[in-house]
Amino acid sequence: MRTGAAFCCLTLALVSRALSVNATVLRVPEDFTSIQSAITAATDGDTISVAPGNYNQVSFSFGGRQIVVRGRYGGVWRPILDGQDSLGNAVYFGSGEGPAAVLENFVIRRYRAWDASAVRCSGTSPTLRGLLIEDCGADPIGDIVSGGGAIRCTDGASPRLEDSVIQRCEQVFGGAVYLEDDSSFTCVGTTFEDCRAEHGGAICGYLPDYVSAQVTLQGCSFHLCRAIGSVDFHNNWYGGNGGALYTYAVTTVSGCTFDTCGAAFDPAQSGAGRGGALYLLGESSGVADCEFRGCSGRSGAAIYGWSVASIERVSIDGGSNVNGAIHLASGSCAIETTIVSDCDGEGIHLAGGTATVACSDVFGNVEGNYGGLLADLTGIAGNISEDPLFCTDVFNPDQPLGLDDDSPCAAANNGCGVTIGRHDVGCDILWLQVSGRVVDFFGAPVE
């Protein structure tokens, strides 16, 4: 048995080495005049190395090849695929490509037709890495239905996006990313900036056709992403849902930051303005280790949940709502070690289902800390209602919300003996702002 196992391992190693030895680097424009011609000449395992420069109105397909198409350098030297507002996709994955099909180190901009996305994935699972996608998609106004200004996934696709930036993209559904036909999406270490749509300002899995789809967001940041609503041809105004994310898939959100995201709503319209940051309709979804600042929406300025299972180690500070910074509509949700503070509305609102809250700090919310079917839980199960004493760097307000040494949310200062919220004590800066007051390192007020 040991001899057989050793032989199998040796065989796999030799095959891997052979593929590595036979892999070829094809250069654009030195060896091939276009990216597509280089791809056509490539075989599995090859790398296409694209020199810096502008590549205008290009559109290419991987054609089922498990290859790497890479900008030769990263950062400001990435090659630019400029659609110049042209119709069509920049890159298409539609022939069974898997994770070994990699698109890396490109700037993709101005693919702006109403039905176009910068990257289209149909039944495929490529890896997208180190991309800057900007100014793609179309204005989300009117009755035309389309989605995914930057990335569109259909037919059970499952791409992975890593270490990228998507900014100023817009569509009707999913300003940056649109998922349909039971498509899944994994996103790691990516920033979404100023994206907008009617539903899912950054990401949308709109239709309830999910069987096994999953959405996973890890270590991502969302800034100024909005579900803005629309005006139809009869001048009727409609609000939107899910300022950052709208999905029916089973969703896991961890280590993410949401800043000034929002879901617009008409006061006369009850069905809009849900989920200023997250609008989660998938069962067993969870949110952990996340931070929400200044997000707004009628119901769930930070989180609107339908059958959300868990919310833990979350910090929510500020923002505007009518029915809760966290709004739970159905199912059974466990909220633990979470801060909800200083919102212009309710803290946690239970509209249906059941919820438990433990070791959390719900404080200073203008319309009440708890609402709907949820009684005031202060003093029960380790819950408190005290100023969390958040601190931020005066000179860099985008820094994470740390806790002052004296914060009741610090593990040493509460009955649960755990850190409440996303971040631990972390005010080791010269000047800092604690709950609106500017103080020096020693806690003395700064004039």
Layout of helices and strands:
Elements: H1 2-22, E1 25-28, H2 35-41, E2 47-50, E3 54-56, E4 60-61, E5 68-71, E6 80-82, E7 91-93, E8 102-104, E9 107-109, E10 119-122, E11 127-129, E12 132-134, E13 151-154, E14 160-162, E15 165-167, E16 177-179, E17 185-188, E18 191-193, E19 196-197, E20 203-205, E21 214-218, E22 221-223, E23 226-227, E24 230-231, E25 237-238, E26 245-247, E27 250-254, E28 257-259, E29 262-263, E30 278-280, E31 285-288, E32 291-293, E33 303-306, E34 308-312, E35 315-317, E36 326-330, E37 332-336, E38 339-341, E39 348-350, E40 354-358, E41 361-363, E42 370-372, E43 390-393, E44 402-403, E45 431-434, E46 437-440
Parallel strand pairs: 1-2, 2-5, 3-6, 4-7, 5-8, 6-9, 7-10, 8-11, 9-12, 10-13, 11-14, 12-15, 13-16, 14-17, 15-18, 16-20, 17-21, 18-22, 19-23, 20-26, 21-27, 22-28, 23-29, 26-30, 27-31, 28-32, 30-33, 31-34, 32-35, 33-36, 34-37, 35-38, 36-39, 37-40, 38-41, 39-42
Antiparallel strand pairs: 24-25, 43-44, 43-45, 45-46
Please characterize this protein's 3D structure.
It contains two helices and 46 strands. The longest helix is centred in the N-terminal third of the chain and has 21 residues, at 2-22. Residues 1-20 and 231-237 have low confidence and may be disordered. The radius of gyration is 24 Å and the shape is elongated. The protein has 447 residues and is mainly beta. The termini are far apart. The strands form six sheets. The protein has a 13-stranded parallel beta sheet with strand order 1-2-5-8-11-14-17-21-27-31-34-37-40, with helices on one face. A twelve-stranded parallel beta sheet has the order 3-6-9-12-15-18-22-28-32-35-38-41, with no helix packed on it.
